[in-house]
Amino acid sequence: MNISAIIQVLVEGLPSTIFILITSFLLSTLIGLFILWLTIQDDKIANRLVHIYTAFSRGTPPLLMLLLSYYELPKLLQLIGINANDWNKYIFAIFGLAFGFGGYMGEIFRSGYQSVDQSQFDAAYSVGMQKKQILREIIFPQMFHLSLPNIENMFLGFLKASSLVYVIGIDDMYRKATILANASQGVFQLQIFIVLAVMYWLITILFSYLFSHLHFGKYRV
Description:
CATH class: Mainly Alpha
Number of domains: 1
Number of helices: 9
Oligomer: single chain
Mean pLDDT: 90
Helix content: over 70%
CATH architecture: Orthogonal Bundle
CATH topology: MetI-like fold
């Protein structure tokens, strides 16, 4: 089995890998922003719920979160009258990864928010700005810029974690590699997984390059 044949098989799983990577990351970002919003409300109950979720999210392995999402989430939804048994596997994969990393994203945004000089609130209030306007136009843009390095690291962490979706039967690159290695009875296993590692490495380089442009844009602001 030559390298080109291996690449051809693994590339078939590339769209699934990229789709799950991007969608789960975006959903996790929304969860993280919601966590931040609850945090800045100065509500004891909300902060307690945030603490519980963050501890659960950060303390649960991604693989376990995927399995809970795929096998147990439909049972929970069934209790409220929602039949999720026929839902696409991608939904559970995306939700499992996003929910599992949402606590990390919330902490990233919280750290970025706290790094912004809070005296800017007083300055903005003095010129008649409202809190929502201050957050939208002054605080949040700075927060995102300060959080960008950690967001990049988290995104690349999503890339590695996305390889776990094979356990629920999604044909991503990792599952394609596993099937191919089993089909060859392990004879070409080393070559297959080296090619797979190189492909993940190239994806990492590509997205690191894109993030570097965001960093460059940050310093131009």
